[in-house]
TrEMBL record:
Protein known as: CbbQ/NirQ/NorQ/GpvN family protein
Family listed: Belongs to the CbbQ/NirQ/NorQ/GpvN family.
Span of domain CbbQ/NirQ/NorQ C-terminal: 180-263
Keyword field contains Nucleotide-binding: yes
Domain of life of the native organism: Bacteria
Domain ATPase dynein-related AAA: 33-167
GO molecular function annotation: ATP binding; ATP hydrolysis activity
Pfam name, any one: CbbQ_C
Keywords, alphabetical: ATP-binding, Nucleotide-binding
């Protein structure tokens, strides 16, 4: 008797904001690397997960940080049982599997680390593994996707122009109100009237200027607020906890956010 086939993995829910799904698919077909810019919590990671599942590709995600070395991406020799064994890093695994390698917050990585991406992002599509002498050719299905939040950047945290110009780039922002409404309802099961209140409040909070806010209310935080409401928290408490406190430690700023929340509810 044949073993049952594994159930097909359903693509995680993603509410499109425009043409981004078609664009991503075209970039994948043409073997082009993609850079996604946008504020934290606006749906970049969900979009990549959705597209990987839709295209039937394995997805390997790396959250970049300033200690990330080229060896962390490519691989290293490990010693065990008196033997030295080569261990592929996530980038090498994605190349071998012909999947998507997604480097989240790529500007956090050191510039000498991002240079290992260069031969993979031009028409060579090669990954030289210096330590083993291997030269891996990326299969046609391999795709490199990187993202960052332009809002966080300061002079030292930008992509080198020589790296940046190797990607086609897509700009994301918080979704339009009708899209955000659909996201909240689908993600949390919240009633439309309550979701609408949250989206209206988000619009007001995002327009708040003159305070020391690095980031404004994200779709992720709205999802959190809706989830707290679905667990029986009052709207006001849910919004205070999910939409005001996470955004700042400055008492004046929190007070201003709370004032907007209190006038809405
Ligand atoms: P980012 O990677 O931009 O920081 P995420 O992709 O992790 O943000 O999005 C945060 C959360 O917001 C997701 O887990 C999801 O619940 C929700 N979300 C944001 N945008 C969308 C969207 N367009 N469709 C579905 N869910 C979304």
């Amino acid at each position: 008797m044949n073993a049952p086939l594994p159930a097909a993995v359903a693509a995680p829910f993603y509410q499109a904001q425009g043409d981004e799904c078609r664009l991503f698919e075209a970039a994948w077909q043409q073997q082009l690397p993609v850079l996604i810019k946008g504020p934290t919590g606006c749906g970049k990671t969900r979009f990549v997960a959705h597209m990987a599942a839709r295209l039937g590709l394995p997805l390997i995600t790396v959250s970049c940080h300033d200690d990330l070395s080229a060896a962390d991406l490519v691989g290293r020799h490990l010693i065990g049982d008196g033997q030295t064994v080569w261990c592929d890093g996530p980038l090498t695994r994605a190349v071998r599997q012909g999947g998507i390698c997604y480097l989240d917050e790529v500007v956090e990585a050191r510039k000498d680390t991002t240079v290992v991406l260069h031969p993979l992002t031009d028409d060579r599509r090669m990954l030289p593994i210096e330590r083993t002498g291997e030269l891996l050719e990326a299969p046609p299905s391999f795709m490199l996707v990187v993202s960052y939040n332009p809002g966080y950047q300061h002079v030292l945290k930008t992509l080198k122009p020589s790296t940046r110009q190797r990607f086609v780039a897509m700009s994301f922002d918080f979704p339009a109100p009708d899209v955000e409404l659909a996201v909240l309802m689908q993600e949390t099961g919240i009633a439309e009237s309550q979701a609408r209140q949250l989206v209206t409040l988000a619009g007001q909070l995002r327009r708040l200027t003159g305070y020391d806010l690095d980031e404004s209310v994200s779709t992720r935080l709205l999802v959190y607020a809706a989830k707290l409401m679905m667990s029986g928290m009052s709207t006001q408490l849910a919004c205070r906890t999910a939409l005001a406190e996470p955004l700042s430690d400055e008492s004046d700023t929190i007070a201003a956010l709370l004032a907007v929340i209190d006038t809405q509810f």
